[in-house]
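Repro:
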Amino acid sequence: MRKLLVLALVGLAAQLVDGALGMAYGLTSSTLLLFAGVAPAAASASVHLAEIGTTLAAGVSHWRFGNVDWKVVGRIALPGAIGAFAGATFLSSISTEAAAPWMAAILFTLGAYLLVRFSRPLRANRAAGRLRSRFLAPLGLVAGFVDATGGGGWGPVATPALLVSGRMEPRKVIGSVDTSEFVVAGAASVGFLIGLGSEGFLLPTVAALLVGGLIAAPIAAWLVRIVPAQLLGAVIGGVIVLTNARTLLSAGGVGGSVPVLVYALLGAAWLVAVGLAVRALRRTRRARATVDAALAAGPAPAGEPAASAESGEFAKPGESGAPGESEAAESRKLAAAVES
């Protein structure tokens, strides 16, 4: 009972993180199960079965808060399901001994990616145009395969790719990725059912993760608007890296003082990433406050540059939107900081 309670709390925390970042439910849950000694295929199977319920609740919650772009969901979910089914079939066919370091390596890589991704600002590209199937379909296929073989990875692969494209609001990226994951989790579960049979699912673990995730789903959909994703992503990335480093070191037969040195280096890198994330977050907030103050000040006195809320640049009276070079450059810097 104590173990199930802990798993329920893990499911709750993982869903809060996933709802705020658009990623990391599978990474967090699978990392814990591997750490507890669960076989890789069983861990991924159980997490994906629980995700059917949590992603359904998350999708409904995001839909109610207006965070979902259904065109994107329709174009990325089906390829993601195909990739997830293939990944589940692959993971089910290899031995536990071979799967453990493979899965830990994927989780470690994705955790490191989170550290790098959230330690620096992400600049949007507003002129990129709308998202097309030729971009979304391959993205969904790769993200689905990585998700099933690694026990998580749909969000860490899909969410940053969509954010970098700059073609969607961040909250809609997160909501759309979370909603489409329902189809991906279902396809992965079918693949594990065929490959492992019903005994491959740890039903008490599934139930505990599901209960915690269902409680957190509506809260997470609301928190996505206020939680500083920059800091949360860096913190979770470090936890995933350190935890899976243990499995990789054990699989490689590394002993003596080497693991201590590796942990120390990884811990230092984690602290640096968190520090950079905090700095980027503060710079973004200062830039946003500066822009808000400039817009709230209204028209400038005669003879001074006036701020244009629509163009984001400065124009002198009588010049009809022809900005000075220094003012325009400063405005672009502020706009880029706010978008990130």
